[in-house]
Structure formats: structure tokens, C-alpha cells
Design goal:
heterodimer, A: 404 residues, 18 helices, 2 strands, B: 319 residues, 1% strand
Chain lengths: 404, 319
């Protein structure tokens, strides 16, 4: 709001890291724009990447509402993501094993092929799974939760890999339609749009065809998902409920002494985050049009973790920034492998993720964009300016915690 | 295979798990965080010994079906794992200004870096030690026990290492200092114990044992960059079962988890033989208790133990 009415003042208000992030993002955007206009980067692929970045941002929002808000160390992000993805895939794909399973049962076959049913089923299964995982682990010490959740994620992955009758096993699920398939107008929108031919630089035209419009729809969808989640989380984080969670994160005993049922609050935060992760999984299914057990690999969990701790634990803006960095790592290694270095992208990605985790914990445990004004009602700040950062001495002790 | 046969296999696998879980538990009690890089430390030991064995060869004679060169490689593997752990402690963990949760997250980054480097250097395929696989010991086959001399070597070596650690912890100065530090680091420090040095020795011992476990795992199965990470969860299950921070608990937990893991086919036979009613429950149990889920079963047992006894079998701080 203030950025629109008073752009100069808004820029001056930025803290130094905010300025840096803004500058780097702008430069990166210009670089991508140049690549787009010269035809070096296909517009459809670009939109796919934007969709992927939105997906990781969504995943990071989910983790943020567990780790960033309540301090829950959830290492089973991949499991919730996978449950959402498989729920959506199994109910919509033409090659889904459910088609055979439901054959002859009244009513059930008519549910198949509807993305909205897949969405509901994915979220419902994630809800049940979150409660099942939460009951035994949320009473435990923080590091026990880390170990137990990583193990339970592995159990989910093993089930997906081995129960072929339900999930197709290692072959994965193919033949998934777009999210809008079967919708009145949007379902046929990509085919109805005319193919466009843009020629910005003579000799290298940019073609916009059906696939492009399909990708555009996906981007709009993820923007709607991410935008909705962002506003819900921002509201929740500032509300009395969010304040209790922040108290639990910094001192659970204190919260309990104040008469709060911390187990119940932690469970609410855990379920909320898990649902958001499953939502990311549902979107991923309709973006990628293929789901396999490889998507449940622990690396997915740690992509989300890197996004959150890099962006700043507890900060939703940071999660957004982290999501973009993750896509850059994921696709950048592939690009590097194609163009420059013949190194297998998989270990290179692993190496980069590892180095980023270590570097953040070493040099900036609170993350690049720690939550500051995000947590304060706008009307409560006198000049609306950024709080002065202390010169020295204050260092958040809770690994990677925000300046709350 | 008979029950004795499964138990024998369980003993071999348990030896490997015990080696891994002792190190994890030691580091947990003295450096005070859950080290997720422990599994990959095992991988480092395994690959270091693979390279060494390739370089030195058999060196003539053999003990228990293993050439002398393999024992040289084992020592190098242990040393390499310990050296890497000490360097990591000095360069990365020590300068960090975060709490134990921050250390935990950092250790995941370190695990990824270890694994990525091994994968870049050696590729992601499975490899083996260049040692002729042996036939099971003839004298034991009539009892349904199919173990090779290599398996015997694994169990004997693990037993020697475990006894050595016991002696070290109970009867040496370093062991007493370590136990003091595990109990109360601040008190240990004001009593004049050089805690930094003791911590480094803890890393040497813990990672060294992990390296040995990795070498034996490579001998028992195969080597791959993911071998350690895949085993990590089973080792965590063992450590939690035994009670985090308790070395003797970790031994017991490792033994139990290794046994349960290898006894899974036996359990599935039992389930098949039992008259379970109703039919769908029998089918569900049959499909879940199978070799594919051996690791998952270890894990579910761990969660169940946490529910009943959050401090594990031995309880906290019973080093």
C-alpha cells in the first residue's frame, strides 16, 4: 500500500538485507527477461519454472507454519507432499490403479477424473496422517520429533513404493490431466487461445501455443493458492493464536505456565502446515503430470528446509525468496550439466543444498529475511519505519530464530 | 531357514548396527546433538577402505577368509572416518553459534556434503570389495545356519571393538572424563577437565566405530553412496530404543533392532501360520510384515517405545 503511494519512502524504509534481496531479485528478473526475449529461455518452460517456484514457496509456507511459528522440527515434509500428490494423481489419472479397483462398485467410478475430488482426498489423507504422526511425536523433545518424523516419512515412502496394487509402485502414476480439465471455460481455454508469434529480436521468434496457455493457467493457480495461504498465515501469525505459538517456540515451559495447552496448539500448527504441504503436492501433480516414489525422497523435505532457514524462520516473505532459490538450484544444476560441466546434477544439487545449509547456520542463523515488521500490526508502529538493528551482542540463540 | 539361522543372521547385522549406534550415542551425550551425518560417516569409512584395499591388495595370507590387506583397509577406513569427523568438528561445528537444534540442522547439511562428494567421485552405483564371496560354513549348514567365515569375522571384530570401548570407558582416565562430561559438562569443566580435548576424542572414537561399521556393512552387503544414510534411521531407532546418550543402552538397542530386522521373514512365517481372524486382518498383517518393510518395522517399534518410555530402555544419562 505504502509502496504504491510513496515509493521513495518505501525504498528508504528497507533494511539492508531487504535492499540486497530486492536488488538481487531485480537483477535476476532482468536476466530472465533478457533470456526470454532473445529466445534462449522458452516461455513455456519459464512459466513451468515459475509454477515450480510457487510450489516450493507453498511447501515452505507449510513448513514455516510448523518450524517458524511453533518450532516443530518436521522432517516429514516429503511425506505430506507425497500424500497430496498421490491423492490427486490417483483420483484423476487415466492410468490410475483406482480405475480397476473401483470397477463395479456403485457411485465410486464417477468420482474419478475430477481434480477437485483429488484435491479433497489429498488434503483429507494428509489431515489424518498429520494427526497420526502428531499424536506420538508432539509430546516428545524437539530432537526426538526430528528423528521420528524422518522415520515415519520413510515408512510412507516404503508403502508407496511397495503397495503396487494402490500406487503402481516404482513406475509411478501417469496420464494426469491439468487441474482445470473438465471445468466450464478454463478447461478448454488453452486449446481455444490462438497461437501467437512474437518476434522481438529478428530471426528468433517466440512462439506462444497451447502448452504456453496451459502453463499460464498453472501459474495463475499457484498464485491463487500461494496468495491465499500467505494471507491466511500472515493473519494467523499476528493473531493471539500466533502469539501463543511464538511463545511456545521460544519457551514452551513459559507457555505452559501461562495455562496454555501447548500440545493442542502444537497439534493445530502441525496439522495446518501439513495441509499446506499437501496442497503443494496437489498442485505439483497437475503441474508435472507425473508422480513417482522419487518425489517422496527425503531431499524434497530438505529443499523445503533450505528454503525456510535461508529465507528466515518464521518469515513468510523469506519462504517465498527461499522457494525461488531452490528452483534456481534445482534447474540451474541441470542447465550447468547440459551446457558446461558434465557432472551428474543429482550429487551437485545435494552438495549445493548441503553447503547452503552449513553456510546459513554458520554466517546467518536467523536467515536472510528474518521476520521483523511482519509480526507487528501496522497501526502499532509509530513512524512505520524499520526498528533499529542493535550494534552487537544480541544474537538469536534459538538456531535460526527470528528477531522477535 | 530355521529360527537359529535367522538368529545367526541377526547377530551379524546387529554387530554392524551396534558399531554405528555406539558412536551416535557417544556424540549425542557429549557433543549434545543428534548427528544426522553419522550414517554418512560410515559411508566414508567404507569407501576409504575400498580404495585402500584396491591399492594394497591381499598381501598374501588370510584370516577368517579375509586377506591381510583387508585388515589394513579396515584400519585406514576407521582412521579416515575419524579424521573427517575431527576436521568437521574443528572447521564447522566448533565456530557455530547456535543451539543443539541448529547443530542438528547443520549436521544434515554436512551429511549431504559427504554423500555428494562420494557420489561425484565414485558414482551412484553399487560396488563390492574385491574379495571372493565365501560359501556358508559346512559344519553349521545342517542346523539351518548359513553364515560365512566373513560373517564370523564381522561379529568377532565388532565384539573386540565393543569390549575395547567398555574398557576405555570404565578403566581409563579418558573414559572417566568422558562420563563426567556426559553427566554435566559445566561441572566437568570447572573440575579442570579439558572439555574441548575430550570432545575431540569422542568424535575420534564415535566416528572411528562408525567407520568400522561402514566397512563391515560394505562386506556384508554392498557399497553405495546411500548406504549410510539408509542405515541411519535404523541406527537412530536403536539409539532411541536404548535411551539417548546411554552407550550401554545403545549396545542393547542396536542388538535388538538388528535382530528384529533380520527376523522379519521369520515373523512373516509366523503370521502366515497363525489362524488370524478376520481374513482381511490376516492379509493386512501378511502384506505389512514382509522383508520390504524390515526397516519400517524397526522404526514403528521405536515410536511405540517412545510412547511408553520416552527415555528408552536404559533411561537418560546412564552412560
Amino acid at each position: 500500500m505504502s509502496a504504491l503511494t510513496d515509493p521513495r519512502g518505501a525504498v528508504e524504509d528497507l533494511t539492508r538485507p531487504e535492499g540486497w534481496v530486492l536488488g538481487v531479485s531485480a537483477a535476476f528478473l532482468l536476466f530472465l527477461l533478457a533470456a526470454l526475449l532473445t529466445g534462449a529461455l522458452g516461455p513455456t518452460y519459464f512459466l513451468f519454472l515459475v509454477g515450480l517456484a510457487g510450489m516450493y514457496a507453498l511447501l515452505s509456507f507449510g513448513l514455516n507454519s510448523q518450524w517458524g511459528f511453533a518450532g516443530l522440527i518436521n522432517f516429514s515434509v516429503a511425506a505430506f507432499f507425497g500424500v497430496g500428490a498421490y491423492g490427486a494423481a490417483l483420483f484423476t489419472a487415466s492410468g490410475s490403479p483406482l480405475v480397476e479397483l473401483f470397477e463395479g462398485v456403485p457411485l465410486l467410478p464417477s468420482l474419478l477424473g475430477l481434480p477437485i475430488v483429488g484435491l479433497v482426498v489429498g488434503l483429507a489423507v494428509a489431515f489424518v496422517l498429520a494427526i497420526l504422526i502428531g499424536i506420538p511425536t508432539l509430546r516428545l523433545r524437539a530432537d526426538y520429533l526430528a528423528i521420528a518424523s524422518l522415520g515415519l516419512a520413510e515408512v510412507v515412502r516404503l508403502i508407496v513404493l511397495n503397495e503396487r496394487w494402490l500406487t503402481n509402485g516404482s513406475a509411478g502414476v501417469r496420464g494426469i490431466p491439468g487441474f482445470f480439465a473438465g471445468w466450464p471455460v478454463l478447461g478448454t481455454f488453452p486449446e481455444a487461445m490462438p497461437g501467437l508469434r512474437l518476434e522481438v529480436i529478428p530471426g528468433s521468434p517466440v512462439l506462444l501455443e497451447t502448452a504456453f496457455w496451459q502453463a499460464l493457467l498453472n501459474v495463475l493457480l499457484v498464485l491463487a493458492f500461494a496468495g491465499g495461504v500467505y494471507f491466511v498465515l500472515r493473519r494467523a501469525h499476528r493473531s493471539p493464536w500466533g502469539r501463543v505459538l511464538r511463545t511456545i517456540r521460544s519457551d514452551e515451559d513459559l507457555a505452559r505456565a501461562l495455562g496454555k495447552d501447548t500440545y493442542s496448539f502444537k497439534m493445530q500448527s502441525f496439522v495446518l502446515g501439513s495441509l499446506i504441504m499437501a496442497l503443494a503436492g496437489v498442485f505439483y501433480t497437475h503441474l508435472n503430470l507425473y508422480v513417482g516414489p522419487g518425489d517422496l525422497d527425503p531431499i524434497t523435505t530438505f529443499y523445503a528446509w533450505v528454503a525456510v532457514i535461508l529465507g528466515g524462520s518464521g518469515s513468510n516473505r523469506g519462504a517465498l525468496f527461499g522457494g525461488i532459490v531452490i528452483v534456481t538450484i534445482r534447474e540451474g544444476t541441470r542447465f550447468l550439466n547440459d551446457v558446461a560441466l558434465p557432472i551428474d546434477p543429482a550429487p551437485l544439487r545435494l552438495l549445493l543444498i548441503g553447503v547452503v545449509i552449513i553456510a546459513v547456520m554458520r554466517y546467518r542463523p536467523q536467515g536472510v529475511l528474518p521476520p521483523q515488521r511482519e509480526l507487528i500490526w501496522p497501526s502499532a508502529v509509530d513512524g512505520g519505519g524499520a526498528p533499529d538493528s542493535p550494534d552487537s551482542g544480541v544474537r538469536e540463540q534459538k538456531g535460526g530464530g527470528g528477531d522477535e | 531357514m530355521t529360527v537359529i539361522g535367522y538368529l545367526a543372521n541377526g547377530l551379524v547385522f546387529s554387530s554392524i548396527i551396534v558399531l554405528g549406534s555406539i558412536g551416535l550415542s557417544l556424540v549425542y551425550s557429549i557433543a549434545d546433538f543428534a548427528n544426522f551425518a553419522h550414517g554418512d560417516t560410515m559411508t566414508i569409512g567404507a569407501y576409504a577402505s575400498l580404495v585402500t584395499f584396491g591399492a594394497v591388495g591381499g598381501l598374501g595370507g588370510a584370516v577368517l577368509g579375509l586377506p591381510y590387506g583387508f585388515f589394513v583397509a579396515l584400519v585406514v577406513g576407521i582412521a579416515a572416518a575419524a579424521a573427517v569427523a575431527v576436521i568437521t568438528e574443528r572447521v564447522i561445528y566448533e565456530p557455530l553459534d547456535v543451539d543443539s537444534i541448529g547443530l542438528l540442522i547443520t549436521s544434515i547439511g554436512i551429511a549431504f556434503v559427504y554423500r555428494a562428494l562420494i557420489q561425484i567421485r565414485f558414482g551412484s552405483d553399487f560396488t563390492r570389495f574385491d574379495i571372493q564371496p565365501l560359501r556358508p560354513i559346512e559344519a553349521l549348514v545342517p542346523y539351518g545356519v548359513r553364515v560365512t567365515l566373513h560373517d564370523v569375522a564381522i561379529v568377532v571384530s565388532a565384539a573386540v571393538l565393543v569390549v575395547g570401548l567398555h574398557v576405555l570407558l570404565q578403566y581409563t582416565d579418558l573414559g572417566r572424563k568422558m562420563r563426567a562430561m556426559a553427566d554435566n559438562p559445566d561441572l566437568a569443566r570447572v573440575s579442570g577437565i579439558r572439555t574441548r580435548r575430550v570432545k575431540l576424542w569422542t568424535w575420534v572414537i564415535g566416528a572411528g566405530l562408525a567407520g568400522a561399521g561402514g566397512v563391515f556393512l560394505g562386506l556384508f552387503n554392498q557399497l553405495s553412496p546411500r548406504m549410510g544414510f539408509n542405515l541411519l534411521l535404523v541406527i537412530f531407532a536403536a539409539v532411541i530404543l536404548g535411551g539417548i546418550g546411554s552407550v550401554y543402552g545403545a549396545m542393547a538397542g542396536g542388538f535388538l533392532i538388528g535382530m528384529i530386522n533380520q527376523l522379519t521373514p521369520f515373523f512373516s512365517d509366523v503370521v502366515e501360520a497363525l489362524p488370524i481372524w478376520p481374513g482381511w486382518l490376516a492379509r493386512l498383517l501378511e502384506s505389512l510384515i514382509s522383508i520390504e518393510y524390515a526397516n519400517a518395522i524397526a522404526f514403528v517399534i521405536m515410536v511405540a517405545v517412545l510412547l511408553v518410555r520416552p527415555n528408552g530402555i536404559a533411561g537418560e544419562g546412564a552412560t
